[in-house]
Amino acid sequence: MIIQGFDSRYWDGKMPPVHNFKFFAGKLTESDYFVNHLAPIQFEAAAELGLPRLGWMFHRCRADIKGSVRIYNTFFRALHVDGLPSLDAEDKSVTRSLANALHVWDTVQEIEQAFGQECMIYTAGWCWDWMVKPYLHPNHPIYQRSLWEADPPPPTANP
To answer: For residue range 21-58, what is the model confidence (pLDDT) as tens digits?
Structure first.
């Protein structure tokens, strides 16, 4: 079953008058250095619309994991985000490798330790199949985590 949500990192808080969205999701942080300054506006607007709010951390393979999770955890809690903590695993700026796939897994584990609950992984199949799948065995515990498919099949012109 597909649940339609509104996902935007630069949303101005104005929703189309007619929509079928069941939730809002927005970028909170990126790596160990970036906080989305629009997130408070976006999350307040989504709350006013009665939409559950999800917020993710964009993963960067070269980032300090503990620092990234510390910033994300602080911002997530300050905005009273609904739902599972989420990691956006779509860093296309790196050379594909086992080390990068393991960095994603280590970040998932650090998020889970900080939040005391499962971390949902947010990605698109085309990116996951390129960045993680070739390097982590199908029995790896990362495949037991909830997956938020950002661009489910069939392929769309505008993911």
So the answer is: 888 888 999 999 999 988 998 888 888 888 899 999 99
DSSP run (H or E) holding 66 = helix 65-78
Cα–Cα distance for residue pair 38/26, rounded to 1 Å: 9
CB of 46 within 8 A of CB of 24? yes
pLDDT digits (tens, 9 = 90+) for 57-115: 999 999 999 999 999 999 999 999 988 999 999 888 888 999 999 999 999 999 999 99
Angstrom distance (rounded) from CA 106 to CA 85? 15
Determine which helix (DSSP H) or strand (DSSP E) holds 149, and give its type and residue range. Answer: strand 147-149
Nearest to 60 by CA among 16, 20, 29: 29
Residue 11 to residues 43, 105, 148: CA-CA distances in angstroms?
10, 29, 20
DSSP designation for 25: E
Burial class (CB in 10 A: 0-12, 13-18, 19+), 35: middle
Rounded to 5°, the CA angle 56-26-83 comes to: 60
